[in-house]
Write a structure and sequence with these properties.
With 296 residues, this protein is an alpha/beta fold. It has twelve helices and nine strands. The strands form two sheets. Strands 1, 2, 3, 4, 7, 8 and 9 form a seven-stranded mixed sheet that branches. Strands 5-6 form a two-stranded parallel sheet. The longest helix has 28 residues, at 60-87. It starts with a helix and ends with a helix. The mean pLDDT is 89.
């Protein structure tokens, strides 16, 4: 059904006549008559009783159609109003996905400040590993993601956001901890604690080790950077972790920073993820602008 024709029909009913409907729509009376005839032709039903009398009298079919037309145009007005409210950040939602460490050390405060400034928004910070964040983005369950490594998916636009320093650590009380520096052979013989598959931390750590010729003979998978840091502090192996995660344990003497053989800088890029063809919502645009202002 042509909504323009339906709008003309509703105007005829609401203004009780063709001439007044034409004035309201800024068209000629003949255009109104033509539109109404075309609508009746499309539906193959008479909508107006033309047997005579003053004013517009609807047939039974016309009455039913007008009830639906009122609902349709009421929804249209509500949709337009909601869009205007969203533009003004008066309503809507913001869902940000982030990997565990990024959420805890880089996003939590900024997100909390934004939510406090816009309490009318339905805001949520969703935490998962890089693979889970990418999947949520593709499914449109989040508006944007912040992760350690760019996912290999052409549907996702990955923008380098910032660099995060990393640190190789070992238990301060361990033999290796007393050395402060170890050879590639010594390090390869250690048990390395690593994140689960799909984690950006794991992918970056493996790359940094490979460029130094270190291929761990043994690994232990643990699903969380903080858990890995505490396991290492307890004397269980070696790990490469974000410096922010291990800073407190180094400060209290439970972990010791370990110098690795020469190679690329121990850091990793963090990325902002967005769907390539999805426009930013007003809420997301405001959040990103606020983050940029604080970082510059």
């Amino acid at each position: 059904m042509n909504l323009h024709l339906l709008r003309v029909f509703a105007a005829v009913v609401e203004h009780d006549g063709f001439s007044r409907a034409a004035e309201a729509l800024f068209v000629s009376q003949s255009a109104v008559s033509k539109a109404l005839r075309e609508l009746e032709h499309q539906l193959d039903l008479p909508l107006i009783d033309r047997s005579g009398g003053r004013g517009v009298r609807l047939t039974e079919s016309g009455q039913a159609l007008y009830r639906h037309a009122r609902g349709i145009f009421a929804l249209e007005r509500a949709a337009l109003e909601e869009v205007r409210e969203r533009v003004g950040l008066r309503r809507g939602g913001l869902r940000i996905g982030a990997s565990t460490t990024v959420a805890a050390y880089w996003l939590a405060e900024a997100f909390a400040r934004h939510a406090a400034r816009h309490p009318q928004l339905d805001s949520a910070l969703v935490v998962g590993n890089t693979g889970e964040v990418a999947e949520a983005l593709i499914d449109c369950r989040i508006d944007a993601g912040f992760v350690e490594g760019p996912p290999h998916d052409e549907r996702i636009l990955a923008t380098r956001w910032r660099d995060e320093p990393l640190q190789a650590v070992v238990a301060a009380a361990s033999t290796l901890g007393a050395q402060r520096r170890a050879s590639a052979r010594q390090l390869a013989a250690q048990r390395w604690l690593v994140r689960e598959a799909g984690s950006g931390t794991r992918e970056v750590a493996q790359s940094l080790l490979a460029t130094r010729g270190i291929v761990p003979a043994r690994t232990l998978e643990i699903g969380g950077n903080e858990a890995i840091a505490r396991a290492v502090a307890a004397g269980d192996g070696v790990a490469i972790l974000p410096a922010a995660v291990v800073a407190d344990l180094i400060a209290v003497g439970r972990l010791r920073a370990l110098a690795l053989p020469p190679g690329p800088a121990l850091q990793r890029p963090l990325y902002r993820l967005e769907l390539a063809n999805r426009p930013r919502s007003p809420a997301l645009a405001a959040f990103l602008a606020a983050m940029e202002r604080r970082e510059t």
